[in-house]
Amino acid sequence: MADESGFSKGLAGVVADATSVSQVQGEVGRLIYRGISIEELAEKSTYEECVYFSLYGKLPNQNELNKFNAEMKANRVLPKTVEAVIAAAPRSAHPMSILQAAVAAMGFDENPVNLKNEEHNIHNAIKIISQLATAVARISRERRGLAAVAPNPELSHAENFLYMLNGSKPNKEEAHIFDVALILHLDHDFNASTFAARVVASTEAKLSLSISAAIGALSGPLHGGANEKVLEMADAIGAPENAKAWVANALATKAKVMGFGHRVYRTMDPRAKVLRGMLEKLVATKKEKDTYETLRIVHDSMIEELSKTSKDYIWPNVDFWSGALYRLMDIESIDFTPIFAVSRVAGWSSHIIEMWRDNRIYRPAAKYVGPADVKYVDMKNRK
Ligand code: CMC
């Protein structure tokens, strides 16, 4: 993919660093966190256990997990300064903009980075991972004109987030589905937001500022912002019976279909498979089935049509189904990408902590394509 100068647009195929946090196996559609497949973690683990696993590189024993859970819970309350930043934002602002500012504000009292003190860096990360969920719930409620709900230390991370968002405890099934969704979004090797986090952290900037940068990268529609766009697309299609014709038109006009395509996967994204399975179970218990049905037809028609072309490597990604799942939990589309951040913050933190063990600033080379010897023209002589 690189040309003779070593240049590869979008860094496609470039190996930028080594990591043992996670690996995307694009040809076979497999994703592993520290060697364990996401399917197995989704079936057997919890988000908290996966966060521990991701940060420390080993599965916790019961004592370690209890201590970790207690630390996550103890850090849920937001500092007043972060609450003030959220309160000061206009309700019209996108929650990702507010979240980026809120996470930067989480670092007002953060000490300068000490690469040698990994334990301290992990505790900083746990604080941000825990507080970020509270911030997302608070931003959403503020926008909806609702009073903030204080975290409940009786509840798990997933349950507590839904409780803070909706003001009522979720039922066991929905809490479990949400927990699995958090596991599935936790990490994805060198995706754009993780890379952004790593680039900023490689300058030895604070964790909060590196994570704030990652939130900016995640917000874009080509990355985490796609989940919100998928639901906008389903709404624009309007009804399942319009979906097939909509896909035909999208392909004919070369429009991008959100929730499809990936830089690394050349087959179905394994996260999309797990999410779809959960979505089908949840939709069977609900009256409203039109969004799912519309997306199902878009999904099937896209795969069918693309399989007849040279673009048969374009498959659905994680963002295709996640929004439909969250909508069935009565979550507004605008909150989908912040929810992605609620999970991915653990991956960003793990990458930074791993990288700081042997840090070197990211500073790639550029392929200069401008002129080499231009004379400066005085103002009076310019046209
Ligand atoms: N719908 C229609 N055509 C597509 C799509 C799509 N979703 N994705 C790629 N293509 C086409 C693209 O137009 C291009 O065609 P051509 O060669 O004729 O110009 C070809 O496939 C290669 O695409 P690309 O843009 O060079 O691929 P990339 O690796 O640079 O970008 C991507 C990957 C994910 C940004 C892109 O597939 C995309 O924009 N998808 C839609 C947004 C989306 O769902 N993003 C979520 C990504 S996964 C989870 C996450 O990160 O949040």
UniProtKB/TrEMBL annotation:
Record keywords, A-Z: Transferase, Tricarboxylic acid cycle
TM spans (from-to): none
InterPro entries named among the record's database cross-references: 2-MeCitrate/Citrate_synth_II (IPR011278), Citrate_synth-like_lrg_a-sub (IPR016142), Citrate_synth-like_sm_a-sub (IPR016143), Citrate_synthase (IPR002020), Citrate_synthase_AS (IPR019810), Citrate_synthase_bac-typ (IPR024176), Citrate_synthase_sf (IPR036969)
Entry annotated with the keyword ATP-binding: no
One Gene Ontology cellular component: cytosol
Catalytic residues in the record: H262, D319
Pfam families: Citrate_synt
One BP term from GO: carbohydrate metabolic process
UniProt-listed Gene3D superfamilies: Citrate Synthase, domain 1, Cytochrome P450-Terp, domain 2
Involved pathway(s): Carbohydrate metabolism; tricarboxylic acid cycle; isocitrate from oxaloacetate: step 1/2
Keyword Transferase attributed: yes
Catalytic activity: oxaloacetate + acetyl-CoA + H2O = citrate + CoA + H(+)
One MF term in the entry's GO annotations: citrate synthase activity
Entry-linked PANTHER family: CITRATE SYNTHASE, CITRATE SYNTHASE, PEROXISOMAL
Protein family: Belongs to the citrate synthase family.
Protein name: Citrate synthase
Source organism per UniProt: Silvanigrella aquatica
Lineage of the organism: Bacteria, Pseudomonadati, Bdellovibrionota, Oligoflexia, Silvanigrellales
